[in-house]
Design a protein that fits this description.
- The structure is a single chain.
- By secondary structure, the protein is mainly alpha-helical.
- The chain has a domain at 9-69.
- It is 60% helix and 0% strand.
- The protein is built from two helices and no strands.
- It has helices at 9-36, 42-69.
- Helix 1 (9-36) runs antiparallel to helix 2.
Length: 93
């Protein structure tokens, strides 16, 4: 049975794919930055970053489920990750 919708599925899926990819890049960012925190206040900051990564993953899963409900396939990939220079050697400037 072919399902019909009262809206154009294509543009909706494009936006959901964009949301999916952006949320997945958020997972990468939050997780990456949680590794880079050091010092005596590390634990609460790391916990906050990882909680945000988990929330982004939940959002990505929800967007993917919505795409599947429209009988389409979610995009495979993540939004582009801009690079930034970081001092990854603590103690050196």
């Amino acid at each position: 049975m072919v399902r019909t919708y009262n809206f154009e599925v294509g543009p909706v899926v494009e936006q959901l794919d964009r949301i999916l990819q952006m949320e997945l890049s958020g997972v990468v960012y939050y997780t990456h930055y949680s590794f880079m925190v050091y010092g005596h206040a590390r634990i609460p900051i790391t916990s906050w970053l990882r909680d945000n990564a988990t929330e982004s993953l939940t959002h990505a899963q929800e967007a993917g489920e919505m795409i599947m409900r429209l009988h389409k396939r979610p995009a495979l990939g993540i939004a582009p990750l801009p690079t930034a220079r970081h001092n990854t050697n603590p103690g050196k400037t």
